[in-house]
């Protein structure tokens, strides 16, 4: 159950195991008898655990000590987990963090799309743009013919300007690998033409 992943003291999973041991003492592991916490009793005896957990005092959150509870109560005037979660400063901090994470994830996606990769079974294992099957050699050969970045970008409408630039940058850094692919492709084409 999802409650087990919450950072609440005495997790639902622990409470459930304890409850099973208390209810079935003949099990393989004898259970030490202890009194269940208020949170554990709520979790065991209810289907609507989350609303009840939200209304627990903030000291029910794992890691909260008396000093932290006192500081939160003094700074934010909150008593329950729900009041803490609904406080405007906490919500602002959560929103900023979520936006930052989304932006970082989006930037990672852009980086992956422009990354030059060598993938077995695609273009003979030679460099291609991102997850496409467009070989870097094709972009280099087009650039050599048209001699401008803009014209090269126009020649590959399925690629972004950043992807074409990444391919040309890759060639500048790794000319031997791309030239090897160009030569291999020329030999294959010559053989197909009967030459």
First-last Cα distance:
68 Å
Count of strand segments: 2
What is the overall shape? elongated
Total of domains: 2
Pick out the low-confidence regions.
1-6
Strand content: under 5%
Keywords:
elongated; about 200 residues; Arc Repressor Mutant, subunit A; disordered N terminus; 2 domains; 10 helices
What does this structure look like?
- With 195 residues, the protein is mainly alpha-helical.
- It folds into 2 domains: 2-86, no CATH class; 115-192, Winged helix-like DNA-binding domain superfamily/Winged helix DNA-binding domain (Arc Repressor Mutant, subunit A, Orthogonal Bundle).
- The protein has helices at residues 12-23, 38-44, 49-54, 66-76, 81-86, 88-114, 136-146, 149-155, 161-173, 175-192, and strands spanning 116-118, 127-129.
- A two-stranded antiparallel ribbon has the order 1-2.
- Strand 1 and strand 2 (127-129) form a beta hairpin.
- Helix 7 packs across helix 9, helix 7 packs across helix 10 and helix 9 (161-173) crosses helix 10 (175-192).
- The radius of gyration is 31 Å and the shape is elongated.
- It starts with 11 loop residues before the first helix and ends with a helix.
- Residues 1-6 have low confidence and may be disordered.
């Amino acid at each position: 159950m999802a409650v087990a992943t919450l950072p609440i003291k005495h997790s639902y999973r622990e409470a459930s195991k304890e409850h099973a041991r208390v209810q079935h003492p003949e099990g393989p592991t004898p259970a030490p008898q202890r009194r269940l916490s208020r949170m554990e009793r709520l979790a065991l005896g209810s289907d609507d655990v989350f609303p009840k957990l939200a209304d627990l005092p903030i000291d029910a959150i794992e890691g909260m000590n008396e000093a932290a509870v006192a500081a939160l109560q003094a700074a934010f005037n909150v008593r329950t987990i729900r009041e803490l979660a609904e406080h405007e400063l906490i919500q602002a901090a959560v929103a900023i963090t979520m936006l930052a994470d989304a932006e970082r994830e989006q930037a990672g996606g852009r980086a992956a799309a422009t990354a030059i990769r060598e993938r077995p079974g695609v273009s003979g294992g030679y460099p291609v743009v991102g997850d496409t099957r467009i070989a870097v050699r094709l972009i280099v050969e087009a650039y050599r013919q048209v001699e401008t970045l803009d014209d090269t970008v126009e020649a590959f409408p399925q690629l972004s300007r950043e992807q074409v630039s990444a391919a040309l940058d890759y060639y500048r850094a790794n000319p031997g690998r791309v030239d090897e692919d160009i030569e291999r492709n020329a030999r294959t084409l010559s053989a197909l033409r009967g030459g």
